[in-house]
Specification:
By secondary structure, the protein is α/β, with parallel strands linked by helices. It has six helices and seven strands; from the N terminus they run E-H-E-H-E-H-E-H-E-H-E-E-H. Bound molecules: glycinamide ribonucleotide.
């Protein structure tokens, strides 16, 4: 998928744990000359993804949420950092922080969520999707707004979960995420 924009777009990728989506985004988006990965950031000093990013030549900025007295104080600093890096789009990739309007009212951001939203908003979406009585599960990429996992949907892809054990189910979710998220980032950037 190609991106038609007049000016190079600067993105930030935020993660909290394993960082496999962050790694996949770096690998798939770096070849696009219209996109610059200008910032990689984590809120977790022990995130496994830090090593993944370093292997690809990106040293994540660590902003430990435990250093802040409130969600709002953390979000304020995050907004300052995003502005300082002149970011056009923030890409949340397994960033496990609830963001307040201090951030969501100001910053353009997208998120990936392991369920067919609006089903299973919030935490434990993967296990809740696995356990529900539906035959289908899936992945959603959406714009971030002040409602948790409630913004406009950019891309959604479903799969038939019948017959899958949890391990196979999780693997399928990740496979779809790695396909869907880079495409959704480009689609979102196209609208800016
Ligand atoms: C991904 O499956 C992502 O969809 C999910 O966390 C995982 C992060 O994995 N995000 C959420 O649940 C957001 N509410 P990763 O760190 O290996 O990319």
């Amino acid at each position: 998928m190609s991106l038609n924009v007049s000016k190079r777009k600067r993105i930030a990728i935020l993660f909290s744990g394993e960082g496999t989506n962050m790694q996949n985004l770096i690998q798939k988006l770096s070849p696009h000359k219209e996109i610059e990965i200008a910032l990689v950031l984590t809120n977790n000093t022990n995130a496994k993804g830090i090593a993944r990013a370093k292997k690809l030549g990106f040293t994540p900025l660590v902003l430990n949420h435990k250093d802040f007295q409130s969600r709002e104080a953390f979000d304020k600093r995050l907004v300052e950092i995003v502005h300082a890096h002149q970011i056009d789009l923030v890409v949340l990739a397994g960033f496990m922080r609830i963001l307040t309007p201090v951030f969501t009212d100001i910053v353009k951001a997208i998120n990936i969520h392991p369920s067919l939203l609006p089903k299973h908003k919030g935490k434990d979406a993967l296990i809740n999707s696995f356990n529900d009585s539906d035959t289908k599960a899936g992945v959603t990429v959406h714009w971030v707004n002040s409602e948790l996992d409630g913004g406009e949907i950019i891309e959604q892809q479903s799969f038939d979960k019948r017959g899958l054990d949890f391990k196979a189910f999780e693997k399928r979710v990740h496979e779809i995420e790695y396909e869907l998220y880079p495409k959704a980032v480009i689609k979102a950037l196209q609208t800016l």
